[in-house]
Every structure is written in C-alpha cells, then in structure tokens.
Amino acid sequence: MRKVAIVGVEGSGKTVMLAGLGELYSHPDPEGYFLCPKNFQTASYVAEKIARMRKGEWPTATAEDVLQGLDWTLRKRLGPGQRPRDVCEVSCLDFAGEVYRLAFGIRQGATPDEMQDEVDELLSYVRNADDLIVLINLRDIIVQGANDPRVQEAMWITNEILSYALDKRDDGRTPRAAIVLSQADSYAVTIKSCGGPKGVLARYLPHVANNYDWLDVLASSAVDKTVMDDNGNIVPAPDFQPTRLRVIMHWIRAGIGMTVRGRPKFTPQRPIQHQVDYGYGAPQRPAPLFAEPPPPSSGIGQFFTLRGRKNRAEYWKFVGVCFLICFVGGLLSEGFLLPLIALVLFWPSVANSVRRLHDMNRSGWWCLMGFIPMISWLVVIVLGCIPGTIGDNEFGPEP
Ligand SMILES: Nc1nc2c(ncn2[C@@H]2O[C@H](COP(=O)(O)OP(=O)(O)OP(=O)(O)O)[C@@H](O)[C@H]2O)c(=O)[nH]1
Ligand SMILES: [Mg+2]
Fold first, then answer.
1. Angle, CA 297 vertex, CA 296 and CA 301 arms, to 5°
2. CA nearest to 399, candidates 358, 364, 369, 366
3. For 213-220, what is the mean pLDDT?
4. What share of the chain is helix, strand, coil (3-state, %, to 5)?
C-alpha cells in the first residue's frame, strides 16, 4: 500500500487535484498505467467533482466535518489478452483546509472537541505517508501576496506541515516529498520568467525555498483549458482535460520501489518526464529499455532475457558458475576452449548484469560500464553488492 498524502491549506487545490488524477487515470496513459478505484465512494467522488467542473464550476470548499478516503490500485496494462499487472495501491484522504489550520496554524491547540478526531487523523495521514505532496496555490503567493495575513498564515502552515512530516520518525523512515505549485495553467508566464518552479519559490517564498530547496518542486494544474463565466470568474472549460497532472503521477511512480529507510532519498532515481510544457525546458525520461511482459522464470530462456529483475544471490550464482566453467574449460583444454566459452557466455552475462541493474531500479544501459577495461571486475563486484529496491519497481516485482 502506497500512502500518498496530498496536503495543503484551504484553496490550495487538493480536491481538484484528487478528482483530476482519478479522472485522468481512469484511462491508461501512453505507458499503460491507470488507476482502478477500489470502492464506490472513490469512483463517485471523482465522477461528481468532474461532472461539476465540466459544467463550469469549481468544487465547493471541502466541509470541515467531511473526510473523504480515496483508494485506488495503480495498474499497468500489458499486451492484448494479458491481465494488467498491479503496480501498487494508492490511498489518499481529502481533508478541509480548515482542519490544517487547526492542526498546524496559529490556533493550534485550540481545537474544539468535535474536531479532535479529524485533527488526529490528519496528523497521522501526514506522518505516515510514503509520498507527501504539499500544494501551494500560485494565486495565493503571486496575486494575494505574502503581505496578506491569511496568506502569511497559510504559508506558515505549509512550513509546519513540511517540518512535521519530514521530522525523523521512530522507525527512521522519512517520506519522499515534493512541493507542487498548483494552478500553473494561469501562471505559465510567471513560471517561465522565474526560470521554473524552483525560481518561483525562491522569488515569492524565499524562506520555504531556503529550507526546502532539496525537495522536488513541480508546477501542475488540474485543467488544461479555462473560460470566463458570466460573473467574470475563470472556470474550467466544458471540454477541459486534467492531462497536466501527469507530472504528479510520474513523480509518484518514480518513488515506487525506492528505499526510504535510513537516509531519505527525495530526488527521483530516474529523471521524470514532464508531459506538461510550460516552456521552461522539462527533463525527459528515457523510454524504458526493456518493457513488459515479465521474463520467463524457468528454462533456458531465463538466461537470455533482458526483462525483469535478479537479486544478489541469483546474480552471484550465475557469476560463480561462469567462473567455474572458465576455470575447468581453461584447465582441460590448456586455454584452447576459452574463446569459445567466452562467446557462449557473453549474452547470458550481459542479461545477468542488466537484470541485476533492474533490481536496483537502474537502466540496463549501465552495464556498458562493464566493457571499460580495468574497471570491469569492479563493476561485477558492485553489481553483486548493491541491494535491490524494496517491493515492485519500474522493471517488475521484487525477485
Ligand atoms: N485555473 C485553475 N484553478 C485552480 C486549479 N486548481 C485549483 N484551482 C483554484 O483553486 C480553488 C480551490 O481548489 P480546491 O481543490 O477546492 O482547494 P482545496 O485545497 O480542496 O480547498 P479546501 O477544500 O477549502 O481545503 C478552485 O476553486 C480554483 O479556483 C487549477 O488547476 N487551475
Ligand atoms: Mg477541498
């Protein structure tokens, strides 16, 4: 179960983002990933909010006493006729921004009795997340400005949420975390003029930028098209699509299988692909080198396939057998057979290294390092020592 906490003060865009993610991933993305609701409440929450937005209305502010649990299974479609693979479970909660004020704001400690359960639930939601997405609405910091007392408090709460969530837990784990600037559709020019989302943070919220510069900072929006309604308000266009939220799912996916014990790793191990082009040069994620379906786990095929993962024990077994074959072959034939043995073992050795790299959630291309003279032996040892990622990763289930 991957607990993804999408948090932020009131109006930061939590509800819109959660509904948008559910809607966007109700269809498989170009790589085949989709979200399958685990219960009716999740499906109806998304349907109701999206229907409202398609009518040109934003969802109403979440009421203080409403706590909506959303549970999905992230799945990946394989080839035609094949059953989709479960990647992980994603569970989120939608709280009212007002509960964040009670838990982290200046009224902290003055929580009315009837709200205590919500506040406790929120604290445990933030504290136990695997992935923490802290939303900051660009409108608040750019238009309202940090001189507005309500925005000041909102930013204080954001800071408090981050410090509470990233404080070391009893089990030594810390969540991966990202600051997401929401409503980026309205502020693309500002983002560009600041040189990207980190630049926006540095210009408008320097204290947050100074403290959390080491976190991922992304810009996103739940709608790709807006129109002005009769009252002059900007509302979603009836045919809007939440495609700009893909950046969020890519960030979540980049953490799957990532070890977060001990020293936290906040930056995705692989660069994430921003499908949203705000014009400030997004990093590109290379297409996976070896795609699904899963590799043959038995028979001779397992030594030749480049798909899937190999743990350290399997890797060393293979290296040991190769060594033995070379040693015995060299002895018996006084070296005459060695070139032939090398030829036969070449591809299985490459496959062995590539699958070990996959176990570490690294691209198989790294095995080319093994062809550099002098360090190839070092590569063999390093590949056999680094532990694989825990749980599923981009290349398949844990071996
Ligand atoms: N243009 C645009 N506006 C957005 C976007 N996301 C949020 N907004 C604006 O921000 C407002 C608040 O969004 P919500 O999702 O309701 O915020 P929330 O965090 O759930 O707020 P509470 O329920 O009060 O805690 C919306 O009514 C929109 O005006 C977006 O992607 N694009
Ligand atoms: Mg809400």
1. 50
2. 358
3. 89
4. 45, 15, 40
Least trusted range by pLDDT, from 25-34, 98-107, 236-245, 263-272: 263-272
Rounded to the nearest angstrom, the gap between the alpha carbon of residue 299 and the centroid of all alpha carbons in its chain is 35
Q: Please, what are the domains in the chain?
A: 2-254 (3.40.50.300), 300-385 (no CATH)
Ligand 1 center–CA 266 separation, angstroms: 26
DSSP helix/strand/coil, 194: coil
Which is the closest atom of ligand 1 to the Cα of 186? 1
Task: Please list the alpha-helical segments (H only) found in 265-311.
Answer: none
**Per-residue pLDDT tens over the stretch 128-142:** 888 899 999 999 888
Please indicate whether residue 99, judged by its CB atom, sits closer than 6 Å to ligand 1: no
Which is the closest atom of ligand 1 to the Cα of 16?
Answer: 15
- Give yes or no for residue 242 CB within 6 A of ligand 1: no
Q: Which ligand is nearest to the CA of 10?
A: 1
With a 6 A CB cut-off, is 220 part of the ligand 1 pocket? Answer: no
Residue 218 carries which DSSP code?
A: E
Nearest ligand to the C-alpha atom of residue 64: 1
- What is the C-alpha to C-alpha distance for residues 223 and 237, in angstroms, rounded to an integer? 8
- Residues shown for the chain: 399
Sequence letter at residue 245:
L
Q: What is the pLDDT of residue 108?
A: 57
20 lines ligand 1 (CB under 6 A): no
Contact 110, 98 (CB under 8 A): no
